[in-house]
Design brief:
The complex is a heterodimer of chains A (567) and B (178). Chain A has 567 residues and is an alpha/beta fold. Chain A is built from 22 helices and 20 strands. Chain A has three domains: 168 residues, Rossmann fold (3-Layer(aba) Sandwich); 159 residues, 3-Layer(aba) Sandwich (Rossmann fold); 180 residues, Thiamin diphosphate (ThDP)-binding fold, Pyr/PP domains (Rossmann fold). In chain A, 37% of the residues lie in helices and 17% in strands. Chain A has a six-stranded parallel sheet with strand order 3-2-4-5-7-6, sandwiched between helices. Chain A has a six-stranded parallel sheet with strand order 11-10-9-12-13-14, with helices on both faces. The model of chain A has no long low-confidence stretch (mean pLDDT 96). In chain B, the strands form two sheets. In chain B, strands 5, 6, 7, 8 and 9 form a five-stranded antiparallel sheet that branches. In chain B, β2 and β3 form a beta hairpin. Chain B is elongated, with a radius of gyration of 19 Å. The C terminus of chain B is likely disordered. Classes of the chains: A alpha/beta (567), B alpha+beta (178). The interface between A and B is medium-sized, with 22 and 27 residues.
Chain lengths: 567, 178
């Protein structure tokens, strides 16, 4: 006979058994029993200022640590406020569990106070969800939620628990196993497909690895490196793959896609074999599918069968965990070098240098790219950088060279503005010893800047770089390129960010000159406390190169070549 | 082209909603969907006819398979199956014409199951072509009301082992649930 506990106690018993130490949340009527019980358990609860923040914090926690992130909210508006964060986690396959309170089961369907059909609303933006109306079902629901969130291609799972189920007492039995016959576990890669892949790799003259988020999720960085080095294959990365392969490695090409370097996208278009490792041929990396990589055979290693052949037809599909698949490939492929191919790519790289803003004079202006570059230098490339969405995000991806997995945290699939600050709080909670930087634009930062209070309440040492150009910069850039510079609703008035940070008790600095960037950053790093920088950058600077949406991947808008100076 | 998928799903609240939501979200075009009990308690079976002009059947199946309560999906389009559709058709019929109509529908192994003053209800079971055939034949007489179940399908003979595998892990899952 197990112990008699309330549903609320069972919830925390289960979370502890799942290894949860920290949850992010906001209390309210329907989740009150759970909050009351929480006080008796060794759980650190981070009180957010808006539930969207809780969702992003759980997400950032998971991205930084690889563990499951947990957020808690009440019914109705509490739950609906989570949804942007849930959708963000869904699009980027982040293992997260969301616990929401629900009105008492007898009131379900009556439009009771703060009732919302949360499992209905979150159906398309969760990997799975469940409504629990009975205390005796809580343990199984939580156990299954964690299992589903982590298994295969990870994702968010929501458990909606009625208030009376939290209050009722029942026997607590921890389910030792889960019974989920419909859940597909990753199978080992198919031997025949492995052999076919190995043959193609041996025959390729211009092979290219496209490494995505799967590298981080499956812990495949070491395997990827061993494979690339053995076969002499260069590696291009998706935005979410950055850090999966060291930027300083001679075989690293950097980012592909819409804002990838021109030589990377050209290499894709000229390659005779693409090895897609844990990436899903998103429209932001392929450009026009009809003309995408026309010369290349494609090997797709992907854990989710529904991604294989979705956007790009492939020649070999290895549906498996990426690390397992790469480790299985390594002994099957011959050691190789592709000197001519690397030389050709290298020439494109040299040509890019002269167009790079990094190598152009600033003329006394402050360019965001220079800020990111100087930030990279000052932090020795070792910070966890959490970005928002927009121009600054692309500049970060281009100019902060990531050497290690989980050192860049960014919303890729959903492109959620307001992500950075709360996700950074989650990341810092997961890895308190890491140096954590927020890089955000003036627009996105204001969407969730209320979480500065959370940051202070938790006494977190997080540094915030607001890349302030007075515009919704990426939208402005599209308007400049594609809408005849008609700047509809993109010029933006912001508060004085230095005063704003001051109101929260956070040290802040305004920086308008290049020479002040590094000293300010270094001083703040020495302080050991949170700090915010208002970097007043060039207002109408654009991210180059750019592949217009739907255009051929090598039809890039590029920065004009200029006079080269020492960076 | 139309594909017929047969899915085995756990009986859970909202499972039909999950399937419907998936089809709507991914813009998969459902021709018909039937759901009902299976040989195993706590499991239902769905027969889904899907138009694959836009999205190939294997991707529809793979997406279905990702739903946690869905334990098995088979594409039975290219293997011999018994297909059935049930229709109830209310057709205008004067009392004097009942005998003639009864004879006509019996050719289709259909029968009159209810009689009203100026109409009858005809019940027919068969594959879709057969049902369509009777419907066309009855249309000139005046079809007042019709309800069709949509297709259900079962693989013929002993081919359960050789059924189209929509993904590599299907048979393994089938074992696990049985």
């Amino acid at each position: 006979m197990g112990q008699m506990l309330t549903g609320a106690q069972i919830l925390w018993e289960c979370l502890l058994r799942e290894g949860v130490e920290t949850v992010f949340g906001y209390p309210g009527g329907a989740i009150l029993p759970a909050y009351d019980a929480m006080l008796d358990y060794p759980i650190r609860h981070v009180l957010v200022r808006h539930e969207q923040g809780a969702a992003h914090m759980a997400d950032g926690y998971a991205r930084a640590s690889g563990k499951v992130g947990v957020a808690v909210a009440t019914s109705g508006p509490g739950a609906t406020n989570l949804t942007t964060g849930i959708a963000t986690a869904m699009m980027d396959s982040i293992p997260t569990v969301f616990i929401t309170g629900q009105v008492p089961s007898k009131l379900l369907g009556t439009d009771a106070f703060q009732e919302t059909d949360v499992t209905g609303i979150t159906l398309p933006i969760t990997k799975h969800n469940a409504l629990v109306t009975d205390a005796s079902h809580i343990a199984t629901a939580i156990r299954e939620a964690f299992h589903i969130a982590k298994s295969g291609r990870p994702g968010p799972v929501l458990v909606d628990i009625c208030k009376d189920a939290q209050q009722a007492k029942t026997e607590f039995v921890w389910p030792e196993t889960v019974d989920l016959p419909g859940l597909e576990e990753a199978a080992p890669p198919d031997a025949k497909e492995l052999a076919r892949a190995a043959e193609m790799i041996a025959a390729a003259e211009r092979p290219l690895i496209l490494a995505g988020h799967g590298v981080l999720k499956s812990g495949a960085s070491e395997a990827l490196r061993a494979f690339a080095e053995k076969t002499g294959t260069p590696v291009a990365l998706t935005l979410l793959g950055l850090g999966g392969f060291p930027a300083s490695h001679p075989l690293s090409l950097g980012m592909m896609g819409m804002h990838g370097e021109a030589y990377v996208n050209r290499a894709i278009q000229r390659s005779d074999l693409l090895l897609a490792f844990g990436m899903r041929f998103d429209d932001r990396v392929t450009g026009n599918l009809k003309t995408y990589a026309p010369l290349a055979k494609k090997i797709h290693v992907e854990i989710d069968p529904s991604e294989v052949g979705k956007n790009v037809a492939v020649d070999v599909a290895l549906v498996a965990d990426l690390r397992v698949a790469i480790e299985a490939l390594i002994p099957r492929v011959p050691a190789g070098r592709h000197e001519a191919w690397l030389k050709e790519i290298g020439e494109g790289r040299d040509e890019t240098r002269s167009r790079d803003i990094l190598h152009q004079p600033d003329g006394g202006r402050l360019y965001a790219a220079h800020v990111i570059h100087d930030l990279w230098k000052a932090t020795h490339g070792e910070a966890i950088v959490v970005t928002d969405v927009g121009q600054h995000q692309m500049w970060e991806a281009q100019y902060y060279a990531h050497e290690r997995p989980r050192s860049l945290i960014t919303s890729g699939g959903l492109g959620t503005m307001g992500f950075a600050l709360p996700a950074a709080i989650g990341a810092k909670m997961a890895r308190p010893d890491a140096e954590v930087w927020v890089v955000a634009g003036d627009g996105g930062f204001q969407m969730t800047s209320c979480e500065l209070a959370t940051l202070q309440q938790e006494q977190l040492d997080i540094k915030i770089a607001v890349i302030n150009n007075g515009y919704l910069g990426m939208v402005r850039q599209w308007q400049e390129f594609f809408y005849d510079k008609r700047y509809a609703a993109t010029p933006m008035l912001s508060p004085d960010f230095v005063l704003l940070a001051g109101a929260y008790g956070i040290a802040a600095h305004r920086v308008s000159r290049r020479e002040d960037v590094t000293p300010a950053v270094e001083a703040a790093r020495r302080s050991g406390k949170a700090a915010l920088f208002d970097f007043r950058v060039e207002k109408e600077e654009s991210v180059y190169p750019m592949v217009p949406a739907g255009a051929n991947l090598d039809a890039m808008v590029r920065r004009p070549a200029g006079e080269e100076v020492q960076a | 082209m139309k594909h017929t998928l047969v899915a085995r799903v756990q009986d859970q609240p909202g499972v039909l909603n999950r399937v419907a939501s998936l089809f709507r979200r991914r813009a998969f075009n459902i021709e018909s969907l039937t759901v009902g009990g299976s040989e195993t308690p706590a499991y239902s079976r769905m027969t889904i006819v899907v138009d694959t002009a836009r999205v190939p059947a294997h991707l529809v199946a793979a997406n279905l398979r990702k739903l946690v309560p869905v334990t098995e999906v088979r594409d039975v389009t290219h293997i011999p199956t018994v297909d059935r559709d049930l229709a109830l058709i209310r057709v205008r019929c004067d009392p004097a014409a009942r005998a003639e109509l009864s004879g006509l529908v019996s050719i289709f192994r259909a029968r009159i199951v209810d009689v009203g003053t100026d109409s009858v209800i005809v019940e027919i079971t068969g594959d879709q072509e057969k049902v369509d055939g009777l419907v066309e034949l009855l249309r000139p007489r005046g079809i007042v009301e019709m309800v069709r179940t949509g297709k259900i399908a079962m693989v013929r003979g002993g081919t359960a082992e050789s059924a189209d595998q929509v993904n590599g892990r299907q048979s393994e899952n089938a074992e696990r649930v049985s």
